[in-house]
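G., the chain you wanted modeled:
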Amino acid sequence: MGPGFVVCLADTDAGSIITAAQTGAKTGYSFVKIQILLVPVIFIVQELTVRLGIFTGKGHGELIKETFGAGWAWFSVSTLFVACCGAMVSEMSGIAAVGTMFGVPVWASMLTADVALLLAAMSGGYSLIERVAITVGLFELFFLVLMVQGLMTDSASTDVNFWAVEVDGEWWKLLVANIGAVVMPFMIFYQQSAVVDKGLTVADLNLARLDTAFSSALTQLIMIAVIVTTAATLPGVDPHGLASIADIEKAFSAHLGNSAGKIIFSLGMLGGCMVAMIVVASAAAWGVGEVAGYPKSLNMSFREAPAFYSVFFSSVLLGNVVACVASKSAIIQINITVEVFNGLLLLPVLLFLYLLARRSLPEEWRLKGWYAVVTGVLFSTIVLLCWISILLSFLDK
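Predicted structure as tokens:
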């Protein structure tokens, strides 16, 4: 147990929370059913990484290199690194925005987060990192409390139809962003490498699957909580959406009061950001190392794996730089754009995952038969939906 829980807590990071909040503000409850439909998708994707990690003992990038050659492996890990840098921008912008709400300068918020991540990464190996990630990620459960509180208040918009949909260009864009906020490239690389780094074996498979199934449902419940809370708080559906993270905090504070709402929202946001920073930086360092061939493990010291930790902190640094120069007024759109980009990257990501599950596993555990057909249709549908939706969003402008 552990890798699936960590990666799914990271799945509800700043970008995902912002995307869910904007979705609730602009479309009401209509995306709740889509989030439910994505539960089996995220489970199928992540369960395949568990199988690949356990039965091959290799990370995702290493398997691509072994199966398809170094060129395709570098292509895959390049898209991963770009996605990781975009995700890190989301985390840093979320941390900075929370700090700003309490009067903390942007540089101070980012520096504090960087130091905390540095200490965790250098202090005790994979086991400590996993425990730290789970501990801070559990603060996201506050969003479930806020959802229940919001639905119980008189201000909840009980007249909103869960099935009502007004489809336009912005709706299609939000659809891609919501898919990209759920199935992220770094999740696949992280969980497979984490399974290897943790040393899981065939005896752990059932618990690892249970870990992944429970966590897949939980991450989607958190996304639903943010959508529902935002939709219930606003007076009807806001056609203009949210302008800043402070607007999202105000939506939550409406139920609990300014002080309590601000603190609880901030803890949930910071928990998601910090666990995602750990996962994203680890995925980048593992992925590049698996293709480049340098020593790669959180169980090693900096002296034993200097390249691994250099890539680890490079992704963090790039996120810092971009988040610092980004306009505060554009934070919402920047984060949604990151999730849209994740959705478009699913074409190579899911294709490699599917092919590896068909070729690299032992015969008994290989993706085959009716399950292979269902998985292939599901992956193809998700990819086509993302690309067609983004096209429709542009055509509608």
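The radius of gyration is 20 Å.

Shout if anything looks off.
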